[in-house]
Design brief:
mainly alpha
Length: 339
């Protein structure tokens, strides 16, 4: 449909969307409105940013990673979000607009681009704050439903929805019963419900598999790095170890009954309804308190690793390699059936 060189347009548009994602990543965990204030501001001095400060990729590089008004450092995350989202949009653009511009592929590409943006936000929010905002999870589910409406493939959407919810809730529930610990966060369950609706059941299985592998590799690497830092810090490391042990001793896993009831409520999308009608969970006996990350005194221990970013990475890989993974799965199924 488009010449190969137009992937540059995907890069530019994706980077611009990445600039908005930085607003989402900063404001949502702090319970700040995305629309008020309307203009972006410096996280340090709160000065309103002008057009020269908002050029995707280039503004951060040209300013040396510092605010032009107060001179404070601007986190490199602002640059990386724009670059990563721009690169992913460029890849999806080339794959579906240039290399495979047939049938409904270009419409699927639009849904994949929007989902990728949401997943990039999840990677950075969950990676830093260990939460996944309900609004982003609801957006992912709406994308899955939207594509089902367009493609008239409700079965694929429903089976993927159930697969995504079922795998992650199953891990959480069985892990709680078998090991007596919280094995998965609630945000992960909600997230994979929407991801599954968009990817379908087969790609959802690939997503979880990729997440497990990448999570294991990077999780162990992260723990090793943190332990090395503590050893290098000397005496302060012992204090941190004592603090971590104390937190582990004070830790109380979620009651199995609560996990089951809330898990079922996610299957029925009560959490999405509660975005507009928060009293729903209050009436159920499970009031949900929104707490800004700046007011939350919870601190992760050394072995607390968010799984959402790895599920998001797996989903992005599945969107980029949808054809190859689907063909591989078809080959495996034909082999099992002896055909």
């Amino acid at each position: 449909m488009f010449p190969d060189w137009t992937w540059i347009m995907g890069l530019m548009i994706g980077a611009a969307i990445g600039s908005f994602l930085n607003v989402v990543i900063y404001r949502m965990p702090r319970l700040l409105s995305l629309g008020n204030p309307k203009h972006s501001f410096c996280p340090s001095c709160k000065h309103q940013l002008g057009p020269a400060d908002l050029i995707p990729l280039f503004s951060w590089l040209l300013s040396g990673g510092k605010c032009r008004h107060c001179g404070q450092k601007v986190p490199s995350r602002y640059f990386w979000v724009e670059l990563i989202n721009g690169s992913l949009w460029a890849g999806i653009w080339y794959r579906y607009f240039c290399a495979e511009p047939t049938g409904k592929e270009w419409v699927l590409a639009i849904f994949f681009m929007l989902a990728t943006a949401a997943l990039v936000a999840i990677i950075f929010i969950d990676g830093e704050h260990f939460i996944i905002p309900d609004e982003i999870n609801a957006f992912l589910l709406l994308l899955g439903i939207g594509f089902a409406i367009y493609s008239h493939d409700w079965k694929l959407c429903l089976y993927g929805y159930l697969m995504g919810w079922g795998i992650i809730f199953g891990i959480a529930f069985l892990g709680r019963i078998g090991f007596g610990k919280d094995a998965m966060g609630h945000g992960d369950i909600k997230m994979m419900r929407g991801v599954g609706a968009l990817l379908g059941p087969i790609l959802t299985i690939f997503d979880v598999g990729i997440a497990v592998i990448t999570g294991l590799i990077f999780g162990l690497l992260f723990i090793a790095i943190e332990m090395a830092k503590e050893r290098k810090a000397g005496g302060s490391g012992d204090a941190e170890d004592e603090k971590a042990v104390g937190e582990e001793e004070d830790y109380q896993p979620e009651p199995i009954k609560d996990l089951f009831i809330l898990g079922m409520s996610y299957l029925l999308c009560f959490d999405i309804v509660a975005i507009w009608f928060p009293q729903l969970y209050v009436k159920m006996g499970y009031p949900m308190e929104d707490v800004s990350v700046e007011d939350d005194d919870w601190k992760p221990t050394l072995t607390t690793i968010p799984f959402g970013p790895y599920l998001a990475i797996g989903a992005i890989v599945c969107m980029l390699l949808r054809t190859e993974l689907s063909q591989y799965a078809d080959g495996v199924l034909r082999g099992l059936n002896g055909s």
